[in-house]
């Protein structure tokens, strides 16, 4: 049985980056190693999730517990994960919940943390920032995302390529699209129609097996993996 922490109970969302274990920050690695328990989301109890894979490579001595997030059962999975966290908090433990990218941006952690706060309003909930996929894609592709007074729109295409339309209207706005791999051909068509296909870059499974980094125009013939990122720089790059 895990003993209570002498540092005080807390639930800590730890961003582990987009895929490459070398992008796990020193702070994140320290928090993971110091935690009483490390929790990682997974699609099944016998499946190694991507966040877990990163931690296993960067911190091989750490024991990891899997929290199953079943497709189509988001609410139930969040409740189950929150119950595990609450049990640990009640036992005085420090829990590190590892998540791809950053825990405060499009992360499962925020939903789990919100449920924990409902159950235990006085719970200590913290986060450790992580490098995001679009930052790695910008670096790998040599893309300058923003300069001077330019703006950034960060969106998802989970509901389809229509999410792009309003974001593309401002020529001084860079657009980053997450989770739209299956809509990549349609997104390329919209970018071309808006005159913003040139310079747009695509990254898939960054830091993971099967990684691709290429112009959107060169990847537009077929869909891509769920973990796909697109950067559309401001007009005139």
Question: How does the SSE layout of this entry go?
Answer:
Elements: E1 10-15, H1 26-34, E2 37-42, H2 50-58, E3 64-68, H3 74-90, E4 94-99, H4 108-119, E5 125-128, H5 133-141, E6 151-156, H6 163-167, E7 173-178, H7 184-193, E8 201-204, E9 212-215, H8 216-219, E10 228-232
Helix pairs in contact: 3-4
What tags apply to this protein structure?
five-stranded parallel β-sheet; alpha/beta; Methyltransferase, Cobalt-precorrin-4 Transmethylase, Domain 2; 2 domains; Cobalt-precorrin-4 Transmethylase, domain 1; 237 residues
Structure, explained:
- The chain is α/β, with parallel strands linked by helices and 237 residues long.
- The mean pLDDT is 94.
- It has helices at 26-34, 50-58, 74-90, 108-119, 133-141, 163-167, 184-193, 216-219, and strands at 10-15, 37-42, 64-68, 94-99, 125-128, 151-156, 173-178, 201-204, 212-215, 228-232.
- Helices cover 32% and strands 22% of the residues.
- It folds into 2 domains: 10-128, Tetrapyrrole methylase, N-terminal domain (Cobalt-precorrin-4 Transmethylase, domain 1, 3-Layer(aba) Sandwich); 133-232, Tetrapyrrole methylase, C-terminal domain (Methyltransferase, Cobalt-precorrin-4 Transmethylase, Domain 2).
- The protein is elongated, with a radius of gyration of 19 Å.
């Amino acid at each position: 049985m895990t003993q209570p922490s002498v540092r005080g109970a807390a639930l800590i969302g730890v961003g582990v980056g987009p895929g490459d274990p070398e992008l796990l920050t020193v702070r994140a690695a320290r928090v993971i190693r110091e935690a009483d328990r490390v929790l990682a989301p997974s699609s099944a109890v016998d499946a190694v999730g991507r966040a877990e894979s990163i931690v296993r490579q960067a911190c091989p001595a750490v024991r990891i517990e899997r929290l199953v997030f079943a497709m189509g059962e988001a609410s139930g999975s969040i409740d189950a994960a929150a119950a595990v966290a609450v049990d640990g908090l009640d036992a005085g433990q420090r829990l590190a919940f590892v998540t791809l990218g950053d825990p405060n941006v499009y992360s499962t952690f925020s939903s789990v943390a919100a449920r924990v706060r409902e159950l235990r309003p006085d719970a200590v909930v913290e986060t450790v920032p992580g490098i995001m996929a679009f930052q790695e894609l910008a670096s790998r592709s040599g893309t300058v995302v923003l300069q001077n007074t330019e703006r950034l729109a960060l969106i998802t295409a989970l509901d389809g390529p229509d999410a792009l339309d309003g974001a593309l209207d401002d020529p001084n706005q860079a657009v980053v699209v997450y989770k739209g791999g299956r809509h990549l051909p349609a997104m390329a068509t919209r970018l071309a129609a808006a005159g913003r296909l040139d310079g747009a870059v695509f990254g898939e499974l960054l830091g993971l097996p099967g990684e691709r980094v290429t112009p959107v125009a060169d990847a537009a013939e077929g869909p891509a993996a769920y973990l796909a990122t697109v950067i559309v720089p401001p007009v005139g790059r």
